[in-house]
Amino acid sequence: MSRSCAHVGADGRPCRAAPLRDGSYCFMHDPEQAEEAAAARRLGGIRRRRESTLAVAYELGGLQSVAGLRRLLDIIVADGLSLDNGIGRLRVLIAAVSTGARLLEVRDLEARIQALEAMQRARQRRTATGSIPRRDEPQRP
Ligand SMILES: [Zn+2]
Question: How remote is the CA of residue 50 from the centroid of ligand 1, in Å?
Fold first, then answer.
């Protein structure tokens, strides 16, 4: 049986985090951990602010899309090119070429799949309206 934290929020909803081993509250809500929890919240806030500042400065859109991945790769390549030449720099650039090639492949495959799906949908619409005969129907001369 899983226990959950005894804290109830200002909105009346209970905290669903797991309580500490010998207590009834989670780390964030245990009165005995209040100081540490406040420090953790402060650090979390600093980290989130820093992350959003960096995201704006580098125009990062996250890694959930090919465009976002490409943007980060562009930054890595720019940084890699500005390093002194050496085996480390060359490795960074080779890895970037390889990763970039994979991203192009994914982008091309996505485009081809979308085109095929669009063709399939158009074909289904034409078949449903009877404007083209189905393959198993006899063709009229
Ligand atoms: Zn809690």
Answer: 26
Residue of 95, 76, 78 whose CA lies nearest to 87: 95
In the reported structure, the alpha carbon of residue 13 is separated from the centroid of ligand 1 by a whole-number distance in angstroms of 11
The one-letter code for the residue type at 135 is: R
Cα(28) to ligand 1 centroid in Å equals 6
**pLDDT per residue as tens digits for the range 69-121:** 999 999 999 999 999 999 999 999 999 999 999 999 999 999 999 999 999 99
State the first-to-last Cα distance of the chain, in angstroms, to the nearest integer.
73
Where are the domains positioned within the chain?
A: 16-57, 63-129
Residue-wise pLDDT for 12-22, tens only, equals 999 999 999 88
Ligand 1 mean position to 22 CA, how many Å? 14
Q: Quote the distance between the C-alpha of residue 77 and its chain's center.
A: 21
